[in-house]
Amino acid sequence: MLHVFADTHNLQRKYFNDAFPLLMPLLAPEWMQDPAKPANPEWLPKIQLVNDADSADILALVLDFSEYQNGEKRQQYLQMAAIAEQMQKPLLYFTGGDFGITAPSPHAYGIRLAGHRSIHDGHQIIMPTFFTDPVPNILGTSWYPKPKTEKPVVGFSGKASNSSWVHGKEWAAVAYQNIRRMTGLDPTDKQ
Predict the structure, then answer these.
(1) Which is deepest, 38, 45, 101, 145, by most CB within 10 Å?
(2) Is the separation of the CB atoms in 120 and 112 below 8 Å?
């Protein structure tokens, strides 16, 4: 049994989209689409929330790490990091999106939902994003594929313009973001 001490006071409905996906069925099963069917019924009984850090195996932050960058939540992260360091226990956090943030604590281990090409250290794990299959919820119990035609219809995703203005604008945006990273104004990891 894995005992987890988490900052559950931050688990509020307004932070639903920022909650740690692996801990959601455990922390707030009522928020799941179907509480009778947890995300993985095999691992759920192997994790238990505890009320004190002394009896925990790991500590965990329940929200996306970007939420802990400013104000009161920043202090909450610093407190959890200090507890993890004092007790020599790992602090687990997650960060989503392409631009993740690495926690400066040596006891912090991040789970990133994206960023396979990002430069990150050995304290980060890349986890593929998962979600409930939307097809049964939208289309019902069955669906029919689109019939094949003689000429295939190819969808489009990406840039519509190949002009030098668009490429220059994108290059400027990347340069601006990298300058903000180098000056410490943007805490996200290098890409």
Answers:
(1) 101
(2) yes
Q: Which residues contact 80 (CB under 8 A, 6 or more apart)?
A: 7, 59, 61, 91
Q: What is the mean pLDDT of residues 30-47?
A: 59
Indicate if the pLDDT at residue 31 is higher than 60.
no
Sign of the dihedral through C-alpha 138, 144, 145, 148: negative
What is the secondary structure of 116-163 as a DSSP string? TTS---TTEEE-------HHHHHH-S---PPPP-SS------S-S---
End-to-end C-alpha distance for the chain, whole angstroms: 37
What tokens does 65 get?
Answer: 């790490």
Cβ-count burial of 48 within 10 angstroms (0-12 exposed, 13-18 middle, 19+ buried)? middle
- Both tokens assigned to 16: 């639903």
